Amino acid sequence: MNLLVETHNRVRTLTFNRPDALNAFDEALYDATAQALIDAADDPEVAVVLLTGTGRAFTAGTDLKEMAQRVGDPDFVPGRYGFPGLIDALVAFPKPLICAVNGLGLGLGTTILGFADLAFVSTAARFKCPFTSLGVAPEAASSYLLPRLLGRQDAAWVLMSSEWISAEQAVDIGLAWRLCEPHELLDVATRHAEQIAQQPISSLIAVKRTMNEPIRGQIDAARDCENAAFAELMGGPANTEALTAFAEGRAPDFTRLPAGA
Length: 261
What we know:
The protein is α/β, with parallel strands linked by helices. It has one domain (1-182, 206-261): 2-enoyl-CoA Hydratase, Chain A, domain 1 (Alpha-Beta Complex), CATH 3.90.226. The protein has eleven helices and ten strands. Keywords: Isomerase, Peroxisome.
């Protein structure tokens, strides 16, 4: 199974389980995760959701092999929810969401933390938003949520540079809350999740609603802007060069592209 689901003490743990693909999101994993969040939101026995991953990655974001297929195959069939549906589920999720980042977090593996109420990171974790190196735009309302979470300049570096951010840096700039040794990560995150889960679910939902409702309009506007930019850039010269370079196992060369591309 590409997503493991376990519930204990009113905490539902969702574990990304494509370790051979660094837990990258293909359409099946997007669908499974979106459905699991919808189910957890509706389950009166679930107070908190905890996200983590198997192997050496939290998630490597979008599966680039499938992205290349989507660009090049007119017959590509998207999933029921896909990426947009997963983000819809994250935006709408009414209960506390905790992330335990066990390893690499690329793309959505970083931007999903904008939706986390608490984020715990292993010292083995590293983060990257590779949007510019893929010739595309930000995603998941990160153009709004990351400046709000990190401050404009740290967010600009994360979103523009396509450089790695260490676990220590992530905590320093506010991307994550607590730094843990790898063997302690899940225990620490679960302990905090279970402590929160002892509280009345109605009150937890009220707290999250009062925190999030004032910014829902900005999140929606950011997503609309990002989606338009992504649609414009996907399949364009820079994105094509990035995906070709990935398939060929080389670094992309954007210097040969037409001016402005």
